[in-house]
Structure formats: structure tokens, C-alpha cells
Amino acid sequence: MNNETGVQTIQLWLLRGHPANSNVMPKALYRKLVGHIRRSGRYPPIIVRPIGDGGGEGYEILDGHHRVRALEELGEAEAQCVVWRVDEGEALLLLGTLNRLSGHDDAVRRSSLVAELNSRFDVAELVKLLPEDREAIDKLLSLTEPPPQPRGAVVLDEMPEAVHFFLLPKQRRQLESRLRAMGGTRERALMRMVEGQD
Length: 198
Hints:
Helix content: 40-55%
CATH class of the largest domain: Alpha Beta
Distance between the termini: 87 Å
Number of domains: 3
Number of strands: 5
Radius of gyration: 33 Å
CATH topology of the largest domain: Conserved hypothetical protein from pyrococcus furiosus pfu- 392566-001, ParB domain
Strand content: 5-15%
CATH superfamily of the largest domain: Conserved hypothetical protein from pyrococcus furiosus pfu- 392566-001, ParB domain
Order of helices and strands: EEHEEHEHHHHHH
Strand order of the largest sheet: 1-5-3-4-2
Largest sheet: 5 strands, mixed
């Protein structure tokens, strides 16, 4: 499909939203979009198609309705656009797919990205800049926390060992009776016995 004409600067008053556009952005996310454009001045180009003969009557938005609204709110007069020459059927198909065909973040990679951003911005700033809310950002950052470090070198002679032994039924009853007499949990009583505290 070779119908792109490159990025063009088009006056906002020439851009019209397509009446069949069904994409709605949550208010909080829209506010972040406005903040991003205000701060950086950058956004993906708006995809439009000419209305009438070559755009003399303006352009219909196929992708970027919220970006155009944000630019209007920010007092901008023009937008960066890519013009696609498509008929109404193709326009409707693009409206039905452009806002729906998107990938999903890999959680580990997203957490690494958020952690890298966190080295440059504090979490409160990231909440303003990223689509995620505070809870989601905290969860992503927890995925990149390093595992706890050992408290120090452990001497092999001081490491606990599993001990297995066999008792005759009579011996087992005697041991259990003695452990009960010592009180506390069975494991604690065994440790006191081994340490000579009985």
C-alpha cells in the first residue's frame, strides 16, 4: 500500500474527526498525553485522509483524534500529519484497526524501562508522565529490586545439617515422653536437648 505522502504540517482547523471513531481515552490518560506534548512538543504524526479533491476541503482524522484535541487545548495552530489517500471503506477499516492493533508490554522489560526512568525521575514525576498509576509503577519497580544480599560469609562447620536416625518403638516413646516433659514445641525441645539444656 503506497499511499503515504510523508510528514506534512497541516493547520488544525483543516482537521476533522471521523464520525465513526470509537476510540475513547480515559481522562487521566488524556491528561498525561497533554502533559507529554506540553513538556516535549513531540507526538506521533496524525494520520489523515484528504476530504474532497486533494484535501482542499480539509482532512479527516484516521488516527490521532486525542492528539489533535490535546494540540488544540495547548493552543497550537498546526499538527504534524501523514496523509493517506484511502476511500471510505478503507478509512473505516483503518479506524477499526489502528487504535486496536498494538502489542503488550513484557512485564520484565517494562519494569527495566521504568527502573531506568526512575534513575532520572522520581516516582511522583513518573506517575505524571507514564500511563501507569502509582500502584502499577511500584509493582514494576519491585520486579527490578535486587535479591537480598547474604549477611556475611557462613563457616561450613556452622551450617546446620539434617540428621536422620532410627529408633525402636520403645525408644521413640521414651524420646517423645521426654520432649513433652521439656515443654514447648517438639523442635525447640530437641534443640534444648542437643545443646544440653535439659
